[in-house]
Amino acid sequence: MVHGYKGVKFQNWARTYGCCPEMYFQPTSVEEIREVDTEKKQVTVEAGILLTDLHPQLDKHGLALSNLGAVSDVTAGGVIGSGTHNTGIKHGILATQVVALTLLMADGTILECSESSNAEVFQAARVHLGCLGVVLTVTLQCVPQFHLQETTFPSTLKEVLDNLDSHLKKSEYFRFLWFPHSENVSVIYQDHTIKPPSSSANWFWDYAIGFYLLEFLLWISTFLPGLVGWINRFFFWLLFNGKKENCNLSHKIFTYECRFKQHVQDWAIPRPLPQVWVPSPLPPRAEGREKTKEALLELKAMLEANPKVVAHYPVEVRFTRGDDILLSPCFQRDSCYMNIIMYRPYGKDVPRLDYWLAYETIMKKVGGRPHWAKAHNCTRKDFEKMYPAFQRFCAIREKLDPTGMFLNAYLEKVFY
Ligand SMILES: Cc1cc2nc3c(=O)[nH]c(=O)nc-3n(C[C@H](O)[C@H](O)[C@H](O)COP(=O)(O)OP(=O)(O)OC[C@H]3O[C@@H](n4cnc5c(N)ncnc54)[C@H](O)[C@@H]3O)c2cc1C
């Protein structure tokens, strides 16, 4: 029996959202790793395990997750529930690594879900939004442990947009950072390597002086917004203007320190990826190839036409394979994610509404779907248009949780 507590306040990492649940329950019997199946390279974990705790366990077995988001202080149940993604021509969102899960439903029964058992619920529950029940365990398909080499080098927006397919084919985990109010781009390639761990980063500049200086200058720019363009260009010159290489275990390269509290939006727009040898649930498609270029150039033009609208760096652009998970932003289409950011220097909010609105308008125009864990203004009407299987998900949710036990104010906006 798990005891509940009143008076608990929840806040998100960026301190931009919070809530006071009626009751807070925290199970105390934690049996962290149940079973590693070394033959199938699968691991079954409790949904609440932090990925930071999972990595060393997988290291011991010579295994790894094939892809990760930017941070590992997140849980297995949480990252799949909100559709967390990274980048990579061969890779889907993190939930595509799930081969089975168990769900404690509102009526107290436990449902085992996989491709072969309760397949329809499985198709919904991998991006579950927390509304289908309590995910108890998650079985993840792992790969043999691997090292990555990260190579970062400067380029321009025009060059990257003109040669997207070529960049995508050159690197397994390609992404790029655009520095708004400039043409500057930092290209990041991450690829398998057998080289030993090494780093050419200038840790002093990059991670000490650079970050303290950036936060201070961003704070100054809250009084002088015209400084933001200069800050973006200065930091590109300071931190991103040369070639850098890092080699390490995959989870150490995928994740990095996100130092500052921030507001973010991250929509997925259609972007067919070049074919590679990888089993894909989707037929090859061509439409949408130009949408990444169209969206970024429109965002750039908007900033140029409205000098009072400021945008912090970077706009991070990542690519993900399509899947068949009902509420995945990549449902039935390969996608390009475009993450915009406004920092909160020393916790101070920076005006962002004009930037946010212009970005959302562009994203909707090019057929985008918002990331479930990041800011957006969409309601059920929007999701019905965006997601061909939205009604199917709703029917499954209503069947599993007919009284709405797992709903909250956010989810009511999504479903009602
Ligand atoms: C610094 C930072 C960097 C980030 N980088 C990325 C990135 O690179 N890519 C990306 O896509 N996202 C990124 N995110 C977003 C992040 O991946 C999501 O917010 C993710 O959901 C966080 O996991 P969590 O364990 O904190 O989940 P929570 O926020 O706790 O949960 C997410 C959802 O899942 C539900 N849930 C959690 N556990 C269970 C369970 N056991 N049963 C039922 N429901 C459950 C919750 O109710 C909620 O609806 C980042 C976030 C931060 C703060």
TrEMBL record:
One Pfam family hit: FAD_binding_4
Subcellular location: Membrane; Microsome membrane; Endoplasmic reticulum membrane
Top-rank lineage group of the source organism: Eukaryota
Cofactor: FAD
UniProt cross-references to SUPFAM superfamilies, sorted A to Z: FAD-binding/transporter-associated domain-like
Family: Belongs to the oxygen-dependent FAD-linked oxidoreductase family.
Purpose of the protein: Oxidizes L-gulono-1,4-lactone to hydrogen peroxide and L-xylo-hexulonolactone which spontaneously isomerizes to L-ascorbate.
Name of the protein in question: L-gulonolactone oxidase
